[in-house]
Amino acid sequence: MAVIAMLLLTGISLKNAILLVDFAIHAERARGMTAREAIREACLLRLRPIVMTTFAAALGALPLILMGGCGEELRQPLGIALIGGLLVSQAQTMFTTPALYVVVGRLIGRRR
């Protein structure tokens, strides 16, 4: 069951990273911003939707942890893996995606 949680976490984390990168690329092209300025603005403007998605998924997984009854031993690890993974992926998305975007932007800038 925890493997199902990992698949869900991968999807949510990638969606969050795509939101940031897409917004930053659009800002770079449309307004002529540097990679650093564009990803900073993307992080500031897209933080709320990303946090809302994370909290909605975490609150959806909360009953899996709190519910008892038949099958509890299968559902509880799924809920724990989801909530823990959501917190880690949230932090990872907000720190590593901008850093990688700036590094890749610098590498592309050097090639040009």
UniProtKB/TrEMBL annotation:
Transmembrane parts of this sequence: 6-25, 45-66, 78-104
Keyword Transmembrane helix: yes
Cellular component terms (Gene Ontology): plasma membrane
UniProt-listed Pfam families: ACR_tran
Gene3D superfamilies registered for this protein in UniProt: Multidrug efflux transporter AcrB transmembrane domain
One term of GO molecular function: xenobiotic transmembrane transporter activity
Keywords recorded for this protein, A-Z: Membrane, Transmembrane, Transmembrane helix
Keyword match Transmembrane: yes
Taxonomy, superkingdom: Bacteria
PANTHER family reported in the protein's UniProt record: MULTIDRUG RESISTANCE PROTEIN MDTB, PTHR32063
Name of the protein in question: Cobalt-zinc-cadmium resistance protein CzcA
Organism: Acetobacter tropicalis
